[in-house]
Automatic annotation (TrEMBL):
Lineage of the organism: Bacteria, Pseudomonadati, Bacteroidota, Bacteroidia, Bacteroidales
Family designation: Belongs to the bactofilin family.
Protein known as: Polymer-forming cytoskeletal protein
Organism (species): Coprobacter tertius
Length: 116
């Protein structure tokens, strides 16, 4: 008998290692990037940038967890987490910021509350 799969209804977008996208991305849900994005990202969910992931452009997300490299500004309405392997060259605007030891941030940080 075939098994019926049930989903939570949540969608997850993924860009794999070795994939290069040139252009802007607008995601209405969570997205994981292990490849390269050359353009801006507007994510209405959580961004996870893997260790090999690279973004050259500005990022807007509700939450973001960065393990790779970003050259551009990041706006996170809730929490931005910079993991130990991250390299961020750009300014950030966040409500909450977590920086692990060895994470590298080259830019200015502004902390504020976002209204919805």
């Amino acid at each position: 008998m075939a098994k019926e799969l049930s989903t939570s209804g949540l969608t997850h977008n993924s860009i794999s290692t070795g994939t290069v996208i040139k252009g802007n991305i607008s995601a209405s849900s969570d997205i994981r990037i292990d490849g390269t994005l050359e353009g801006d990202l507007d994510c209405r969910g959580k961004l996870i940038l893997g260790e090999k992931g690279v973004i050259t452009g500005n990022v807007t997300a509700v939450n973001a967890e960065i393990m790779g490299s970003v050259t551009g500004n990041i706006t996170a309405e809730e929490t931005l987490v910079l993991k130990a392997t991250s390299l961020l060259t750009g300014d950030i605007e966040v409500s909450s910021l977590v920086i692990e030891p060895n994470a590298r941030l080259n830019g200015k940080c502004s902390m504020r509350s976002f209204s919805r």
